């Protein structure tokens, strides 16, 4: 509407209430300022009212005589120019953010309220989800979080209390046609078609195709098969097999006893321990012999006679000195 | 969360997960699914079963200890990963588990469980008399009812033909131990059909066959199944590992139903491909213990559940086109 009277109004605003009105531009602006804070609808009504009255008066004035018209138009034009100038100054002085909506203020408020509510709901959901995902306070998970415990070996998971193990919020069952939504994909359920008869047919097929008997005898290459053994149960072991050994390194009966043992020291440990004990005892007994002390009263029996002095006495004394002479070198050699 | 319910029309409605209207039997007062009535099992006529079980411990079926060998034939399909994750899932459900790494010479189960620094004695030392059996068992500190037993350290030898008997003695000794017989003895079988395989399957009563959706693995799995059946193990169930639902949708990979049609085995579980397996191996922390659980972890838990109740899958998941998300979907709808 403002564009009918003055093209300059396009650049300012499309709101006709800000149009120049020689009687009360300031009053309109005051009114505008008040009503911006109150309601946009009232402002628009005022805006329409002023625009309509403006048009009415403009139309009514055009019905006057030409002379009056010329004088009046000139004065009017001058008046309008001053009012327009004042208006422009007023608009420049206004704060930059003057948002006046075209439509009804009530709808805009409702839309804004919905947007705000949505954002609030989403924020609350995120907060609740985060809270649920965190473990309860004071649990072992807090120790893991603080780095006191290793998380890779520590089971944070709680034991199942027979709840639905498939209670996964990511799995959503569709309302129609048995669809299941999991992890962003949609799946349909297809029934299994295998029947008991088909299973029996497959079993018969396999029994014909695969004839196998469990091997009970393992022989090396070159060994002969005993006469009472079914050749199908003989397993031939190649000579270069890395883990093959037919020699019985482990006594079967002993191995079985070892497996069934529930208490006490394991057999080999016990055997080694006993062997060690025996060895220790043997060593100790040998050391006892080494530490025997010589009786000084019997020392003479062990003395070695001098050769150049006692050679004749040895010949006269006979076998008694022979024993002494034999033992004396040994006594001399011992430390 | 609403879980899927069983169809009442199936004759053995143990673990069907297909229903046309999962909300049909909702209790209007509590909005929780009401449990439908099915044909009861002979040993417990009041048992009510559903696929995605809730609020109850799985009921142990069969005689204890349940000696299960986890084998595949082909190497690298996920036997050790399956043993570790299913074993820990069983322990979490409250069952006592002993996992035996029966690979003589190439030991890996301790690495996956993060127990490699605690293995001091193995079965070879027990047989030689260097230690008792209880000293060779390594108890997991995360779940005290889970124990690990390794057959041998690397670079040690065990006489061929002797290992099978040794495992039988082991199982008997575990049954007779003072703290009671374990509920489950899981035997991680080595690859191949050689002496190690023969040793591992000796004491087993049932088998879990791990396979992947490729033809090489399937051929080996079929051979191994034949050998197991020849040796007298009839209860054989299958776990299909490393499944890529996107490739199945694009028909670049065999579907689980195709695999079942080829092998003719009941399904214990379908494990999707998950990069978290590598990370969990690096950490020594099996992925079933992750919070929140991954898809593969959930699948292992489901498989453990079915193993306890001697159950099998009645339906599989097939990937479909994702639904178009509305403007307000990010609000949690």
Automatic annotation (TrEMBL), chain A:
The chain crosses the membrane at residues 105-128. GO terms for biological process: chloroplast fission. The keyword Transmembrane helix applies. Residues 317-327 have a biased composition (Polar residues). Keywords: Membrane, Transmembrane, Transmembrane helix. InterPro entries: MCD1 (IPR034572). GO terms for cellular component: chloroplast inner membrane. Residues 303-335 are annotated as: Disordered. This is Protein MULTIPLE CHLOROPLAST DIVISION SITE 1. It comes from Vitis rotundifolia.
UniProtKB/TrEMBL annotation, chain B:
The keyword Disulfide bond does not apply. Residues 25-44 are annotated as: Disordered. Pfam families: CbiA (PF01656). GO terms for cellular component: cytoplasmic side of plasma membrane; cytosol. Keywords: ATP-binding, Nucleotide-binding. Residues 68-286 form the CobQ/CobB/MinD/ParA nucleotide binding domain. One of its GO terms (molecular function) is ATP binding. It comes from the Eukaryota. One of its GO terms (biological process) is negative regulation of cell division. Belongs to the ParA family. MinD subfamily. This is CobQ/CobB/MinD/ParA nucleotide binding domain-containing protein. It comes from Vitis rotundifolia.
């Amino acid at each position: 509407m403002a564009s009918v009277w003055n093209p300059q109004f396009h650049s300012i605003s499309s709101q006709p209430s800000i149009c120049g009105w020689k009687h009360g531009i300031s009053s309109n602006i005051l009114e505008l300022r008040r009503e911006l804070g109150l309601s946009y609808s009232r402002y628009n009504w005022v805006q329409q009212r002023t625009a309509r009255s403006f048009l009415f008066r403009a139309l009514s004035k055009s019905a006057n005589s030409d002379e009056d018209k010329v004088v009046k138009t000139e004065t009017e034009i001058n008046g309008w120019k001053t009012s327009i100038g004042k208006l422009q100054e007023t608009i420049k002085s206004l704060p930059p953010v003057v948002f006046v909506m075209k439509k009804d203020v009530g709808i805009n408020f409702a839309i804004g309220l919905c947007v705000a509510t949505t954002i609030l709901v989403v924020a609350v959901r995120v907060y609740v989800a985060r809270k649920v995902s965190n473990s309860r306070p004071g649990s072992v998970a807090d120790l893991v979080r603080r780095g006191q415990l290793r998380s890779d070996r520590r089971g944070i998971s709680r034991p199942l209390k027979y709840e639905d193990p498939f209670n996964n919020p990511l799995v959503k069952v569709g309302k129609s046609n048995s669809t299941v939504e999991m992890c962003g994909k949609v799946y349909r359920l297809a029934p299994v078609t295998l029947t008991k008869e088909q299973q029996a047919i497959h079993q018969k097929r396999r029994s014909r195709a695969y004839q196998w008997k469990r091997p009970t005898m393992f022989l090396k290459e070159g060994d002969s098969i005993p006469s009472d053994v079914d050749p199908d149960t003989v397993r031939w072991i190649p000579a270069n097999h890395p883990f093959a050994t037919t020699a019985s390194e482990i006594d079967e009966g002993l191995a079985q006893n070892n497996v069934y043992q529930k208490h006490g020291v394991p057999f080999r440990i016990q055997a080694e321990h006993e062997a060690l004990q025996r060895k220790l005892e043997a060593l100790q007994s040998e050391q006892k012999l080494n530490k025997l002390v010589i009786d000084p009263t019997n020392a003479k029996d062990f003395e070695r006679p001098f050769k150049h002095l006692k050679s004749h006495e040895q010949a006269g004394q006979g076998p008694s000195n022979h024993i002494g002479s034999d033992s004396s070198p040994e006594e001399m050699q011992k430390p | 969360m609403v879980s899927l319910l069983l169809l009442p029309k199936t004759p053995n409605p143990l673990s069907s997960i297909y229903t046309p209207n999962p909300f049909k039997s909702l209790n209007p007062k509590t909005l929780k699914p009401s449990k439908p009535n099915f044909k009861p099992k002979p040993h417990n006529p009041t048992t009510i079963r559903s696929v995605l079980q809730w609020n109850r411990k799985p009921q142990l079926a069969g005689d204890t200890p349940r000696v299960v060998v986890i084998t595949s034939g082909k190497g690298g399909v996920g036997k050790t990963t399956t043993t570790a994750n299913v074993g820990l899932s069983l322990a979490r459900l409250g069952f006592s588990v002993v996992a035996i790494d029966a690979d003589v010479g190439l030991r890996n189960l301790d690495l996956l469980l993060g127990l490699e620094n605690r293995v001091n004695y193995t079965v070879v030392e027990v047989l030689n008399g260097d230690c008792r059996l209880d000293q060779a068992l390594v108890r997991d500190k995360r779940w005290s009812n889970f124990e690990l037993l390794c057959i041998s350290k690397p670079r040690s030898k065990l006489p061929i033909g002797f290992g099978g008997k040794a495992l039988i003695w082991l199982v008997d000794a575990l049954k007779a131990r003072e703290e009671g017989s374990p509920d489950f003895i899981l035997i991680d079988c080595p690859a191949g059909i050689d002496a190690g395989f023969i040793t591992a399957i000796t004491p087993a009563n049932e088998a879990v066959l791990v396979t992947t959706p490729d033809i090489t693995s399937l051929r080996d799995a079929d051979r191994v199944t034949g050998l197991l059946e020849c040796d007298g193990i009839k209860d054989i169930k299958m776990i299909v590992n490393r499944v890529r639902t996107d490739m199945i949708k694009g028909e670049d990979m065999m579907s689980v139903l195709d695999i079942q049609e080829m092998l003719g085995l009941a399904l214990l579980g379908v494990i999707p491909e998950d990069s978290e397996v590598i990370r969990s191996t690096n950490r020594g922390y099996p992925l079933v213990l992750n919070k929140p659980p991954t898809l593969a972890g959930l699948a292992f838990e489901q498989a453990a559940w079915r193993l306890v109740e001697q159950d099998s899958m009645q339906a599989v998941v097939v990937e479909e086109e994702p639904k178009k998300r509305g403007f307000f979907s990010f609000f949690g709808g």
